[in-house]
UniProtKB/TrEMBL annotation:
InterPro entries assigned to the protein according to its UniProt record, in alphabetical order: CBD-like_Golvesin-Xly, MurNAc-LAA_cat, N-acetylmuramoyl_amidase_3
UniProt keyword Protease present: no
Superkingdom in the source lineage: Bacteria
Keyword Signal recorded: yes
Record field: transmembrane: none
GO biological process: one example: peptidoglycan catabolic process
Signal peptide region: 1-19
Name the record gives this protein: N-acetylmuramoyl-L-alanine amidase
The species this protein was found in: Sumerlaea chitinivorans
Keyword line: Hydrolase, Signal
Amino acid sequence: MRLYTTLAVLVAATSLSWAQTAKVCIDPGHGGSDSGAVGNGQQEKTNVLNTGLKFKAWLDKDTQDPNGGGSWNVIMTRSTDVYVSLQGRCDIANNNGANRFMSIHNNAASDTSANGTETFSYSSTGTAADLRNKIQDRMIQAWNRTNRGVKTASFYVLVYTNMPATLSELAFITNAGDAVYTGSSSWQDVAGKAHMFALQNHYGLTAYTPVTAQNYIVDNGTSGFSASSNWWTSTSTAGYYGTNYHVRGTAAVSDPAQWTANLAASGNYQIYAWWTAGTNRAPSAPYILPNGTTVNVNQQANGGQWNLLGTVNLSAGNQTTKLSCWTTSGYYVIADAIKYYGPQ
């Protein structure tokens, strides 16, 4: 039951660092034989499950991105179209030691003109009320529906959970205007993100949109690669990336080959190089990373694979890695492909 309430008034939502993890129970209402509200060709159970899963996806992304936001251990009361009793939902949260319980619903009324967003907690003050208030604020910003305010109620899942709990009535499934939002996959995703922002703010974190790490591969001869006419293409040694590689004899001049990638987000990036190996390759080929650091690699070994040059903090936008030919004379340097992986 509401055993935490008195203590919660004394203990505000604590600040969360990325190294700490809060356990959040997401509760998509209804399910299975319980369709919840229906209206405008939609079922509440389907809408809120989709919204809850998108909320979870945002929290998972946030956990994977150490550059901002928080770290979350997400528990779902249901992840499919199954019926879970009200007590069953409470048991899932309580037995797993959740730190917060967040129930997601669509509203309904016989009067189809009823519309808007409202968010509930059991008490008007304390930790749950703080989270409730932040959810309401974020949902109004996100969906811009009528603001019906924050409220208190003795809903079963608000009473019989042992942790601060909220219940979101996102909008009215029975109202034609609201239903545009409740049943839309893209607007459901926006609602999930808004709940993530609210949770971040509740834990004292600045609202942060996490970025999923991705590969940016620039192969020789493709957009983003450049080299002078002193470099030529070859396929004489197997193990190259793509259709060929560029090669140049070493000399006492920089004349670098260059790989430029347009990065979507700032953060730490791992930078890898691919070359073909051979005994005539430079044993100390100088790669120059975007931050100016020179990394010398032995191109006589480890050909035909990605080789890590280093991890560098980079800003969003164009970032360039270079390969100079200024190294020990009598060898060749191989300019094949560069991969940027991040942000991490």
